[in-house]
Amino acid sequence: SGIDEEELIEAADFQGLYAEVKACSSELESLEMELRQQILVNIGKILQDQPSMEALEASLGQGLCSGGQVEPLDGPAGCILECLVLDSGELVPELAAPIFYLLGALAVLSETQQQLLAKALETTVLSKQLELVKHVLEQSTPWQEQSSVSLPTVLLGDCWDEKNPTWVLLEECGLRLQVESPQVHWEPTSLIPTSALYASLFLLSSLGQKPC
Fold first, then answer.
1. CB under 8 Å to 87, separation ≥6 — which residues?
2. Cα 57 from chain centre
3. Which of 21, 51, 55, 141 has the most C-beta neighbours closer than 10 Å?
4. What distance in Å separates the CA atoms of residue 139 and residue 167, rounded to the nearest whole number?
5. What's the CA dihedral at 88, 91, 29, 55 to 10 degrees?
């Protein structure tokens, strides 16, 4: 399910990935705070309800392709859809496309990662997690080669071990982590899930940001 993985991450390097995700987030940041909150709360709910998430992704994909009307959905997926359509039931492509991209990124993640993100939405942990994943992606370039990336302690929080949610998020991407002199061992095969995790954290954070 989800966007074709190759299509999701077209970027050849971190700058490319950042530009791709930033373009999506700037559309979302133009939304009123109230609407963003509504979308964010309901994304937290559909992250724990796979069929809902798939139904919303399919509906947005169809609407974006056919350039038009979408059928209303029930529950949290319906609440998100309502934020992305005009009164006529027609999708607003500028808003629907970034949410479609976000759902595609979330669909690449494992169920464990989805559950952790749903929990993180209720806290201020997202921005720390985003910084750490960004650090790993930046420092592991070129992505085609194995490497070791040292992790700055300032981003790790009090307790860096297998129980730390950020540790689990990274480990689920197929990365090997170590506690002593905190490090991540980068594997080229981890690129798609790690990029999807970065995109998810970035867009969820931008939905949650207060206007300046």
1. none
2. 14
3. 21
4. 17
5. 120
Burial of 154 (0-12, 13-18, 19+ CB in 10 A): exposed
Annotate 105-123 with b (16+ C-beta within 10 A) or e (fewer): bbbbbbeebbebbbebbee
Q: What pLDDT does 8 receive?
A: 52
What is the Cα–Cα distance from 56 to 77, expressed in whole angstroms? 6
Q: What is the pLDDT of residues 16-65, one digit of tens each?
A: 999 999 999 999 988 899 999 999 999 999 999 999 999 999 999 999 99
Distance CA 181, CA 153 (A): 9
pLDDT band at 4 (very low <50, low <70, confident <90, very high): very low
Compute the distance between CA of residue 50 and CA of residue 183 in angstroms, rounded to an integer.
Answer: 32
E strand segments, the chain: 147-150, 176-178, 183-186
Q: What is the pLDDT of residue 184?
A: 96
pTM over cut 0.90: yes
Token pair, residue 104, equals 């595609």
Mean pLDDT of the chain: 90
Tokens representing 124?
């201020």
Cα(193)–Cα(190) distance, integer angstroms:
6
